[in-house]
Amino acid sequence: MIIAIDVGNTNIVLGCLDSKRTYFTARLSTDVKKTSDEYALMIRSLFSLHGVDRHAIEGAIISSVVPPLSLPLQQAICLVTGKTALIVSSGLKTGLNILMENPAALGADLVVDAVAASAKYPKPIFVFDMGTATTLSVIDKKGNYIGGMIIPGPVISMNALANHASQLSHVDLEAPSKLIGNNTKDCMRSGAVYGHAAMVDGLIDRAEEEIGTKATVVATGGVAPIIIAECKHKIILDDTLMLQGLLLLYQKNSRKPEPRRGAAEKRVPQKKG
């Protein structure tokens, strides 16, 4: 059983899982002002809340798009479990062939998504991760990560409207009852939800045209359920994709090498009689 932590710009998703089951998941607000002690208290409380023995943890792994939080969270996990967490970086073994101009610059979250999707779904694969940003990762039929897109997410788009248009206010992201809104809030919601859904549908069409074949399309992230419900393409909603990818990466990078048996290895002869 391990702790897997995905640090996003808005939320931190924490999961306690192994190959057989997920024991619990939790969502915390991302806050760079919190100390390692404060995060340790929160993590320890989650174990108590869900009735999971923190001493049963064998290890941990962190994926972060907020670099200042990587070390405090690593320290917090060590305080709670006594284990040193792996941090997803260019030094980890991923099994992923990244065909980018600078593979080391690819975001940790995109790497983790791609590792999990490659292990679970038929290739080629398009992975949409919908949070603060909406990202598209494209994995070709050979399993190569060939590129993608980074797009402002629906929430940040609505917030930008409210911040820059004096007559518009902040509204929650939810699908209105119909496409054509008849009040300002529903018009904003319709634009964010249906507009984003139409964008996703359009990107799938264009990306499939570019790679020359149909693809398996997978979506994950905090706002994915709202958006995918309004898409016309067949899209697999996988809200545990990131945690599963972190588990796979932990397993790839924490296995102890098997002892090698060389020529110098000799058996001790047993005495007769």
Automatic annotation (TrEMBL):
Belongs to the type III pantothenate kinase family. This is Type III pantothenate kinase. The keyword ATP-binding applies. It is found in: Cytoplasm. Gene3D superfamilies: 3.30.420.40. A monovalent cation. Ammonium or potassium. It comes from Caproicibacterium lactatifermentans. It comes from the Bacteria. Pathway: Cofactor biosynthesis; coenzyme A biosynthesis; CoA from (R)-pantothenate: step 1/5. K(+) binds at D129. Catalyzes the phosphorylation of pantothenate (Pan), the first step in CoA biosynthesis.
